Automatic annotation (TrEMBL):
Its main location: membrane. This is Probable membrane transporter protein. It comes from the Bacteria. It is a multi-pass membrane protein. The chain crosses the membrane at residues 6-31, 43-61, 98-114. Belongs to the 4-toluene sulfonate uptake permease (TSUP) (TC 2.A.102) family. It is found in: Cell membrane; Membrane. Keywords: Cell membrane, Membrane, Transmembrane, Transmembrane helix. Pfam families: TauE (PF01925).
């Protein structure tokens, strides 16, 4: 482990803890640009990393009673199906196209948050 990887983890965990999401929007570009990990591997690795800080943050949200378990179960059904389909489609895109699609998604998500 080196300081770069720990710092990337700290920043993404911190962002996820405050905003409840967003770790992936920092983590994917960090793995690509700072750690020089290939695009497809960055996306797949990000999901595995997010599990750890999502579980940690979720326990704190549950403890502080700011968690809706009913909504969680309902959304989890659709997200599980979507996750399977998305994971299977990941290798259908070139690294360049994947980067472009992810960038467009990040821009649209940012605009949605601002407006």
């Amino acid at each position: 482990m080196n300081l770069k990887t720990i710092l990337i983890g700290f920043i993404t965990g911190f962002i996820n803890g405050i905003f409840g999401s967003g770790g992936g929007t920092v983590l994917v570009p960090s793995l690509n640009n700072i750690l020089k990990i290939e695009e497809h591997k960055s996306h797949a690795t990000t999901l595995s990393i997010i599990i750890f800080f999502t579980i940690t943050s979720s326990f704190i949200y549950i403890k502080n009673n700011i968690y809706d378990l009913n909504i969680t179960y309902k959304v989890a059904i659709g997200s599980t199906i979507g996750g399977v389909i998305g994971a299977k489609l990941l290798n259908k895109f070139s690294g360049k196209k994947l980067r472009l699609l992810f960038g467009i998604f990040m821009i649209l998500a940012s605009l949605r948050m601002v407006f």
